[in-house]
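Dear colleague,

Thank you for sharing your sequence with our group. We've completed the structure prediction you requested, and as agreed, I am returning the results in plain text so they can be pasted directly into your records. Please verify that the sequence below matches your submission; if there's any discrepancy, let me know and we will rerun it promptly.
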Amino acid sequence: MKWLLLYAFIIPRLSYGLDPFACKDPNSHSAIHKILHSLNSNNFLAHRKFKCIEDVMPSKTSVNYASDLEVVRSMKDRDKESYEYPWLNVQATENSEEKIKKVYDVSKKYNIPPAILYGAIAQESSWMEMGLADDFGNWACGLAQLNVNDWCNWSENADALTKAKIKWPVKEIQAYRSQHPGANICDTSFITPSYAGPFYEVALKRLRSEDPDAPPYMLRSRHASEPRLPNYLEIMAGYRFVAKYSIDDRISKNDPHAQGLRYLITSSFAANCSDYHNGIDAAAFTFAEIFKQLPQELQQAQKYKKGLENPNNCAQNTSNYYPLHVGWLLANAVYNAGPEILPGVFKYQQNSRISWENFTPEDLVKAIHFAVIQKNSGISSTGAQEAMGHVPGVLNSTSFENKEDADE
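Please find the predicted structure tokens below.
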């Protein structure tokens, strides 16, 4: 699985040299510090009432919506950040009610705490249904900023109706596997994120045919699918370039049937990846697959047991895990930073002699900091930044205030 390297929409990055809570922005530092140090008791975590998804999802009633909309209407220079982010924020308010319902439905399906699912996606895209983007070579797309490998893993495990909707090449995959038993079509040894690059180029040309000055962040899935999919031969030219410069020589030596299958897989991805229905489900699936690989003791910890009910008076209470379950938070950190952080996190937990049941989000941030500063950890500098930024960011994104305090 390819681990995403996201920078956009992340809270100011945390320093991983000395203080795991250090931050360049003193206001963000104060907010995160306050949140983390208030979450130092799992008894508190089990009983506290948090804001609900319906309270924090971007919508046309959000505080900044009117001002962002005014900027979008009045500004003409769309290449400036002062236009881009208000425009993205306005777009993020689309389908807010449907997104809320989807979060709760998917939370129940995968038993992931809805607050963590919401916060994780907020960190990736601020709930904007983004089209394809280079993303530092990761070629990510949609709410969860998935790449083609993430999409492939989710699609292969989707139900028949979903596969039909996203035009997943079921028959072609079966035919290919009959000739190549055991082939893992979702692995980077078969298809890499860069295979979405040619689709991006075609989509950008279509966007510019509508509006010559449109910046790339205005791309939508329809630009990669309507009125037709990008031409096979057109994409093949791009594929030959990808194969020529591929790190994995096995890709360039594959037969035309393999290239045709890559075209169909990436077509499904490019044409459907920004749809919020797919993005929310695919994000939860991806987190759940990581969560399943964590220690059983951690998976079984921090659950609401009989006689102890989830106190949140939200539209739905869809998970029996604590709202800020450290295992699900860790799964999100791994998704962004890579599995290299796990040995250090596990070592910290063992050395601290704190059980997973009593391990708090503050403990997790300290454990990730410990993992990052270990010698020969194999964690890249970008991975370290991702690791240190995402867990506090997820907490901060969801405005974890006491509902009673917020109502006063």
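Summary note from our side: The longest helix spans residues 256-272.

Kind regards,
the structure core
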